[in-house]
Amino acid sequence: MTTALRSSTPGVYYQAVDAGGPAVTPLRTDITGFAGLAERGPIDLPVPITSWRQFVSWFGDVIPAGFLAYAVRGFFDNGGVRAWVVRVASQDPVAGAASATADFGNGTTPVWRVAASTPGAWGNRLTLNLREINRIQLTTTGTDPQGRWSRVPGVSGLAVHDEVRLTQPGTPPVWRVVAAVDPVNSQVWWVPPDGPRRGYDLPISGLDRTAPMVLESIEYRAVVSESGRPVGLYDRLSLVPENTGYGPLVLGAVRPPVDPVTRSAAWQPPAPIMIEELRTDVTDLRGLDLDPTAEIPLTAGRSGLSTLSVDDFVGQPVAPDDGPVAVALKRRGLRALEDVAEVALVAAPDALVRPEPPRPAPPPPCVPDPCLDRADLLTTYPAPDVDAPPLFTDEQVYAVQAATVEQCERLRYRFALLDPPYPAATDRADGLRGVLDWRARFDTGFAALAHPWLSVLDPLDPTGATTRLIPPSGHLAGVYAAGDLETGVHRAPANRLLQWALSASLEIDDTRHGVLNDAGVDVIRTVPGRGLRAMGARTVSSDPDWQYVNVRRMMSMVEKALDIALQWVVFEPNDVLTRARVTLSVTNFLLSLHERGMFAGSTPDESFYVSCDDTNNPARERDLGHLLVEIGIAPAVPFEFVVVRVGRVQDSLRVKEGAAP
């Protein structure tokens, strides 16, 4: 809209005004939400992830006890660019997740508790070297008779809230906090000139005020190592709460942002450790008792997997009158993803987790001593103890997947990626019975079931010689995302080469493929000469109108875009002008989608229609405050069957392609 310039000359002036409402724009449909088991990271908190490397910095690498990391890597390797990840763990008060910790004090008083930043047994690999650093060392040249200030040769480097130690030969040291600095008179005040403000604004006592004192600044440096490898250095930490280097402030607990969508750019992976204040009396300023050469191990970390339950994955509905504690207990796993409005695909591969025993690290090479008996050279390297999750029954797996589908149906703008159970994806003797029985449990247009599982090179094996079977939902989420970004949500998410996958867990021939395709199971198979591909794009719906994945997802995108863009209509006058503006906005939006090839018709009239007039908004509806916009769309369905006709014409051979009837 443009505005005419004001003028004092009488006359007619023109002002161009946009008669339509705010433009409707397509929304992203490639963003995927994952819920599963991870080595580290915050629990039940959605975290935005834009690369595999960022996932590792937040949640760690692949683990034997979960599929989440494999799924996320498959997502990014196959074209995904943005995901939200929720780590799942048990909330059992005894066997649940816990952070590894170590306490530090001064004498018998505990002062700081240093813990791994997030729960998990991974924290038991951390060691901490905490040492005192003295950047400034001065000798006082005089002290106030009342002990309120001391004079020093120079105050450069000293600042308010710095902690210092004052010593004299043969006398116990005294700790004080700088209350004020007077650079003109080179004075350091221990009590503010206008009187004490804090409990530790105290005059010098216990030392000879008439004699020189040695003044040393007190700060702390923390060096964190994981399995002997340095992973963090934090300098100039302070015991004083008002100091900008206050340990619990610099290395505090991981806190979620107020809005996980609008503030996602501010998310940074947590430091490996966090510091908690244990003192009840902050006026005790004695320094920490430290061995500067000691590597203190953090202990007692637990991953909280042995008591894992379905509730840990799905959470519970949040009531309007629930308080913060109740909301935190209920908004868990998949339920935590509900608040992230931009999520369009959802997967929970760890509902089918089959924990594998961790592979021990290969022993160091040794040179046999020819004088020793060979039996003495045999050594057993036991696998480390791991808090393994339980193996869910089929009913428990179904409960998790049913909750995923229910969320997508209720929110309407999401699509669930389902995985078949392990036996159905690996049992050759059972044939198709297992996966068909699993498919029969669902009837919805908001989900797709892919079969079978995928075999990938396992990063847990340093030799690169071991493979692991994983559910395919993560890889397919990447395929969906890549198609959405390259072409659009109207393209069927199939017939793309799968990256970071060696083979399928079962070889499926044409006959079995046909049976599964008719049943609404999307088959993953090796196509001769073209590699491993997803060769299906059907939902698990029995309704023919919603049997194609791209049709359901495109309609969800259109509905959500209109839902967001037409909010301006609320409380507008229900008159002809408002209805015309709505019609214009919706029509322009659908025209843009038609131009991108999302609809079946060759012309706009064949592709869609928009009705918002007196015919579907009679007076009785308008009197109730209702406005009805009726939209009809002819979605483009994928070609599943292409017929190549080969025939002889006189002395030549003609090849012609055509769609199967």
Explain how this protein is built.
InterPro entries: Tail_sheath_C, Tail_sheath_structural. This is Tail sheath protein C-terminal domain-containing protein. With 661 residues, the protein is α+β, with helices and mostly antiparallel strands. It has three domains: 32-92 and 305-360 and 386-551, Rossmann fold (3-Layer(aba) Sandwich); 98-303, no CATH class; 576-661, no CATH class. Helix content is 20%, strand content 23%. The strands form eight sheets. Strands 2-3-1-20-21-22-26-27 form an eight-stranded mixed β-sheet, with helices on both faces. Strands 7, 8, 11, 12, 15, 16 and 18 form a seven-stranded antiparallel β-sheet that branches. The protein has a four-stranded antiparallel β-sheet with strand order 9-10-14-13, with no helix packed on it.
Strand line-up across the major sheet: 2-3-1-20-21-22-26-27
* CATH architecture term of the largest domain: 3-Layer(aba) Sandwich
In DSSP terms, counting alpha (H) and pi (I) runs of 4 or more, how many helices?
14
Radius of gyration using CA atoms only: 33 Å
For this structure, the CATH topology of the largest domain is Rossmann fold
The overall pLDDT, averaged over residues, is 88
Largest sheet: 8 strands, mixed
Look at the helices and sheets and give the structural class. alpha+beta
Low-confidence stretches: 260-265, 374-385, 657-661
Helical proportion, percent range: 10-25%
Content of β-strand? 15-25%
CATH class of the largest domain: Alpha Beta
Distance between the termini: 51 Å
Number of domains: 3
The counted number of beta strands is 31
InterPro entries: Tail_sheath_C (IPR020287), Tail_sheath_structural (IPR052042)
Domain Tail sheath protein C-terminal: 541-646
Protein name: Tail sheath protein C-terminal domain-containing protein
Family: Belongs to the myoviridae tail sheath protein family.
